[in-house]
Structures
1.
Amino acid sequence: MTESGRKEDPFWLKNMIVLGHGAPNRINSLGGRQGRCLCLWSEDRGYCRVYPVPYGFVHDWEVVDFHVRLPKNDGRENSFTLNNYETNWDKMWECIVVHKDKNNKRVKLSRDACIKLTHKLAIDTFSNVRDNARSFGIINPTKLTFFLRKNGESSTQQTTLVELDHTIMDQNDFKWLPYIQYECPQGCISAHPHTSKIVEWGCYQFMRKHPDDEEYCKKLGDNLHISDDSYEKYLLIGNIKNYPKTYIIVKVIRFKK
Ligand SMILES: [Zn+2]
């Protein structure tokens, strides 16, 4: 396979399905340019994290190859950085190859394939993901509540959220932050319910229109169909670099029944 040779050598992560994008972070070593973190999965590799990925290169459920290497200061499981992103940021297309079909159309899983894969993966509980120090897991929650928390009330899940249409917007610019409280299916040994911040990028794109307006931001719960029984909902959770036992919600995966 591609990982022969030295541990630090770059290699290709092949046939990865994009499951979710976190909201962008500032990359200090690149003068504050924005990159996000992807949650990927493949049959061969399982869950992988790749970052920093520039805006606009990939979409959820597409199939992509990434040229990566091990990061320098990240102990999280199956986490990789794009190769040479520090010096080659304007040519990241060299490291991100989206699969295309014979008509040159980007390959994306069909709705049925997305649902089938989600059902296959949604077998986790919070404690089983955390206690095995996994980077990601998908939970099929038995209870689910959406709420906003005033920014600044909790500092344990710091994430910087930026570059929405090239306007720099920091987490501090959002007065309200979206949270979900949930319970896992049986087998979770951690205290219930769990409370996690949502970092799904689309949520911030929505709130950005009126970031100070609580009533407006609350509508995010409807957009996510949290209380709508005609939707199946699953939580894609992932851990954060500085607090690897803390998990945030990378995406609320949802399908109309
Ligand atoms: Zn649980």
2.
Amino acid sequence: MKHWSKGKSERLERDFVAANSGRSPVATASSLPVLRQQAATCKACELWKTATQTVFGEGTPGATIMLVGEQPGNQEDRVGHPFVGPAGKLLDAALAEAGIDRSSVYVTNAVKHFKWTASDRGKRRIHKKPRASEIQACRPWLEAELRVVRPQVLVALGATAAQALFGASFSVSRQRGQLIDSPLAPFAIATVHPSSILRAPDEKSRHEQRRMFVNDLQRVALLATQAHAA
Ligand code: SF4
């Protein structure tokens, strides 16, 4: 059974401090409320300029499971909480089906500000994928969350989160549901982002993708049980 070792924790801390030296605000606090407060004024990339607010992660510091998505969406940007829009509702239902209580997990995103572009008529804000430089700029906040929460099971939702956590060559289509050897948590795994299920071309494929997503989350539930039993 794998555990958070003292050495791993110290290495994460050391890498984190090295990566952040000279940056402002410096995300070295060891409490989530303080980190959230600091991130609210972050201007380390350009995304804060067009978003409503920073959407920091939510959940308990000792959560067994941490779910990491790509970035907040339109509704999350407006209300300031992660995974509260349509994808969040799908996630809630899938977690419940897999036997995972959402209140027992920590949910966050690789990028904390909503990146968007205006629709043709300018009435809607359309999600835009963050650039590698924006993901990199936001990484100190994600690493700070990992450092404080110390999840037993780290779950990347979608390609952006998976590549941010496990490297640029990571392929969710090839490696979803597989255990990944990562210094970030004792167990690490990736699956799709729930928004990709909402974009399925028809009802049949949506149903199939949702079934596979629940399967992946059931594996997560099993890993969390193993972590507790250790
Ligand atoms: S997206 Fe991340 S790095 Fe960029 S301004 Fe927002 S919090 Fe800072």
3.
Amino acid sequence: MIDQLEGLRAIGTTNENDIHALSWDDGDKPYSQQFGDHFYSQNDGRAETAHVFLAGNDLPQRWHSHDHFQIAELGFGTGLNFLETWRQWCQHRRPGQQLDFTSFEAFPLDAAAVIRAISAWPDLMEQAHKMARRLPQLTRSPAAWKLDHQTTLTIVKAQALEGVGTWPKKAHAWYLDGFSPQLNRDMWSSQLMEQVFAHTHDTGTFATYTSAGWVRRNLQSSGFNVKKIPGHGTKRHMLTGVRAPSGGSS
Ligand SMILES: C[S@@+](CC[C@H](N)C(=O)[O-])C[C@H]1O[C@@H](n2cnc3c(N)ncnc32)[C@H](O)[C@@H]1O
């Protein structure tokens, strides 16, 4: 494992200045020194992903009715959300269906940090290596990788507002995963939520771990029908929402 980590560290990222400053709790839990927050719940980040982002968007169920399903995410971080989604997708997909997962990330982690974080979930490691070896290729242009014959990962290395605003596609489901709203206001601004709404298909959805009042109001005023539902672990609430079909409410 150490050899693999050293190898990935040696590759580095395309621009040393972009490296996200981290410290580590318990050896494998990344903490952002830049934002003063953890990347995910300390109480099993993978279970949080499954509850908040997959179940919160009614996945895997909604995959059944789409030949092509587009997920978009604010904040790629360690890639844990992507890896757990890819794992569940591999279990539930039908032959011929395609999943596109696009994530907007301004301060990417390097490959060694991703592998160190994901080592907490040994069954995700094979896929983590397949994903992490592409990370050194990240540049400002969107990088799209076909990770298996039915799964494409695209990372847009940009400020979220700029990245989503110029994105030529729409999502069926959004994972809103900035750091805590009071520490990372840009990731929850009304302008960004308007862009998220504009880049959501009719009947498309979002899910997020936060239930902060001002975030809920930004999402509502952008046009989403928002619901507060039980959160993961010690979090009492989280938010989900749907874009009503044009010309009606859901
Ligand atoms: C809570 S972490 C995401 C965790 C991630 N989804 C995972 O599975 O590990 C938030 C991420 O948002 C990124 N971020 C913060 N502000 C941003 C901005 N304005 N635009 C784009 N990305 C941003 C951070 O670099 C960080 O990787």
